[in-house]
Please model this.
Amino acid sequence: MTAVFGSGADTNSYEDFENTDLIIVWGSNTQEAHPIIYNHIRRGIKNGAKMVLVDPRKLPMANFATHYLPVRVGADIALANAIGHVIIEEKLYDAKFIEHATEFYESYKEVVAKYTPEFAETITGVPADQIREVARLYATVDRAVIAWTLGITEHHNGADNVFALINLSLLTGKVGKPGSGLMPLRGQNNVQGGGDMGALPNKLPGFFNVEDDGARAKFEAVWNCKIPAKNGLNQSAMFSAMRDGRIKFMFVIGENPIQSEANSGHSRSAFENLEMLVVQDLFMTKTAEIADVVLPASGWGEVDGTFTNSERGIQRVRKMVNAPGEAKDDLWILQEIANYLGANWHYQSAEEVWNELRSLSPSHYGMSYERLEREYELQWPCPSLTEPPEKVLHTRLHSDNVGMRAKFSPVEYEEPLEPADEEFPFVLITGRRLAFYNTGVMTRYEGGKVKDQEEYMEINPTDAAKYQLENGTRIKVSSRRGSVEVPVKITDRVMEGYVFMTFHFPEQVNTNTLTNDVVDSKSGVSPYKYTAVRLERI
Amino acid sequence: MAVEMDTIETVTKSTICSFCGTGCGLSVTAKDGRIVSVVGDKNSPVSHGETCVKGSQAWTYSQSKDRLTYPMVRKNGQLVKVTWEEALQVIADGVRKVKDASGADAFGCFSSSRATNELNFLAQKLMRQVIGTNNIDSCNRT
Model:
């Protein structure tokens, strides 16, 4: 998103799901992973919007869709390019918008030329006629929103998948307007905010680039320090640097990478190679167990501060109770570490930290705690203390003052890195279930009323019959990297040839033993969604 | 900076859910220093009083008896309880040793995309201003 528009965030607001003509949900089990956003989508459907669902699994929400496109895992680019092909072939594109606000249309046109719906059908499994219908629908409605989650990004070429969807919005001018835009839905409560605050190797707080000399100079002057002129290492590159000894000291704050990283045995050995590992967390996680120093932190309900949600909305979180025992506020912990190392930090409250950020980030300046108290949620950019913030980004693309043009980024379909073969004939997809969350550190504790507290593997009835499996039969699942044992659940939610597991219950079944830790060179994501596996009866 | 709460009485405040990226508003009641109820906050412009099962029930993890309650340092292969002063000194000594031998880019930080903006701001400031490296990433891609 940043590469195309200059900023990486949802272009629109949740309310746009309720005031639009078409919602394309692509690779997102919104109903289970983002249930309250799904309620916005439902209200949109009630208001007359159509919904198209694109997903390898026939999710229950398919019942409310006018079109369900059962795309094969990893074939999203072929499908998106075919939709673009039809829109160009039938001259349904927004020629005025393309001319006015975009560049590189010709190279996009060239790339999608070979993605006829018939050719795409052979790759995606989606019938050519359905591709044509959805292309016509998207191009001809007034307003349309495309929403996606990890089904799009958790592939070896996840960044290209996102480009393929952005291209469609540029082709039809369906971005930068109320009711039209691109909505990547964030999986964790403050993914957006963490990046906006500069907890990224290439970004300073407030969306400034590390490699921008002028931006660095501004921060260096305020902080009285020298910031390295080159981008740092991202998460995957840091793992490599730990393995080869370039990184010797790691701070891990509120993360459990040993269980959540793909190919988790490999992650553990990287941490064991360090001279010092400091873990700051709520629980004795697998990562904390091998640390040299473990610091007890404060959790939700125990700290003041702000979160930034998927629609760029900043909201206040509030302290209700004290942390247990000697556990401390994370801000206190970081301040103490800094001051033990000779810094002179003296923040008295979360608000003082926030005010420093506001002074450095014009996009956040207008959101004082006092105003957040009154208005509840404020979306960035919000440069003024009195003006309302922007609900829709990139409206400039439709104005006389276009500014930086939005670039088409043509992308080609690539074969999966690890296609199913004779030895590993099934494709394992991983994902989340409604009541649980990631590695379960936060959701397996004392959640007595919640059903389905165990891992199982979903398998299609036809495949189950081949292996003579019944619901609950335990089987061995193996990839090129390891094996786990898991009971099966038979369901037509998954297509033949695919199986589905979560990674919520690593003590029962450590799904990430199986997954592949090769990363997308553009986005740094591992292809959790796609792993070739074989099944054996025990 | 940690302000001690007067939690003898019952307090109810608005806050934001800590699970997915939607940002639903919750109304949380605490009594005698324990959170006792979480319901949807009707004033929230995001969720209008709605919550999912995670938001309304799964918060109990934060009050688990398994929470870490004191700092620990590894001694003779075992993690043992220490004071905050000792833990911080061990970190400071470790940082100086690695920095002197290998420089600032021998450090890295994984910051939490579940923690607040304020924490993430200070984590990157610690790495850039105090340590002197851009090696910081949040778990923002997964």
About this structure: The radius of gyration of chain A is 24 Å.
